[in-house]
Amino acid sequence: WSHWIYTALTFLVISCPCALVLSVPLAFFSGIGAGSKKGILFKGGIALENLKAVKTVVMDKTGTITKGNFVVQTILPAGTASEQEILQIAATCETASTHPIGVSIVSAAKDQNLVIEKPAEIEEISGKGIHAKLSQGEVLCGNRKLLTEFSVDCGTYDENGAVTIVYISVNGKLAGTIQIADTIKPEAKDAIKSLKSMGIRSAMLTGDGAVAAEVGIDNVYAKLLPADKLEILQKLRAENGSAMFVGDGINDAPVLAGADVGAAMGSGADAAIEPADVVFMTSSMDAIPEAIRIARSTGAISNQNVVFALAVKALVMILGLMGIASMWLAVFADTGVAILCVLNSIRILYKK
Q1: What is the reported pLDDT for 141?
Q2: Out of 60, 182, 277, 334, which one is annotated catalytic?
Q3: Strand (E) positions, 219-332?
Q4: Tell me, what's the pLDDT at 208?
């Protein structure tokens, strides 16, 4: 009786799941802590779990790959209106806009001390631009798609470069264009290179080939409406596996919610940050590969803890059944293994 009671008690001590209950959640807590030290906010362990399986990183251009500090470069009149008049009309249309392109136009008008009137009527057309009624008449201010929708001849302009062209028409006739340029983030090229070294493909939505070529992005999908972004994301997910989307604008909210992992730049709109699983508070592209590294390390250490704890417990159980394992060895298999797994979990916090 004493032998089997002792063996049963040994089994009881060994079978306590302390190591698993403590170490696995702690590994994810440590991963979240390691991210916060680097300005990366993970919204729970599920975000880390999904992030480690990402095969494709899909990014928006403005505010993610580029700084989003647009500057008016050139104003090209197409009719009788002067450069100042074109800029004044565009600024009037963009007074209520929070888009970086609109803000840059208003800033340029204010720098030239131009008078910005209040529009009689104004309508924002998602992904295209502004339709407004001003003292000059019916005005359109946006991309080529907007003017084409209203049957306005846009003329011939090269849109293949890294310059964003804003078209302005008055009463159905093209008045001129404003060329606006953005600045690529200095760390963008190295971040994309890091993703490639990790075996992760990259894609850019609503960007131009010049920016993609400069930073080394694999695929570019230009001139997309907000609804098109989600469709492209689903396509990439079907082709390559789990996909992560990184954006910062209001229009990115549906794609962020629809991706396996949605990541938002901390400098972006609240509507983008809310549905995101991960938020990069520094708004640096270096945070993208860093977040994936942390997620992969967290997953690997969590798996190590599970395998180590179960292997030691199984071994000590066999020894206990054979009458070799003592109660002290059973205590080690429970408490000792739990401590070792906890120490292994917090290693993420100190991993460079």
Answers
A1: 92
A2: 60
A3: 219-221, 243-247, 261-265, 278-280
A4: 62
This prediction has a pTM of 0.73
Structure tokens at 351: 């991993």
Residues in the chain with pLDDT values less than 70: 157-162, 206-209, 226, 250, 268-269, 271, 325, 352
Q: Phi, psi (5° rounding) for residue 272?
A: -85, -35
Distance CA 301, CA 58 (A): 27
pLDDT of residue 324: 73
Place of tokens 């991993």: 351
Torsion of CA 266, 246, 35, 340, to 10 degrees: 160
Token duo for residue 195? 């993703």
Contacts of 132 (CB under 8 A, 6+ apart): 92, 93, 119, 120, 121, 122, 123, 138, 139, 140, 141
Pick the closest to residue 138 from 167, 166, 170 (CA basis).
Answer: 170
What is the rounded (10 degree) CA torsion for 244, 246, 252, 255?
Answer: 0
Can you give the length of the chain in residues?
Answer: 352
Contacts of residue 4, defined as CB under 8 A and 6 or more positions apart, other chains included, come to none
Q: How many CB atoms lie within 10 A of CB 252?
A: 32
Token pair 């990541």: residue: 263
Pull the structure tokens for residue 337.
Answer: 């293994």
Residues with Cβ within 8 Å of residue 8, at least 6 apart in sequence: none
Q: In the annotation, is 111 catalytic? A: no
Q: How far apart are CA 286 and CA 36, in angstroms?
A: 14
Q: Which residue has the tokens 């880390």?
A: 48
The pLDDT of residue 34: 93
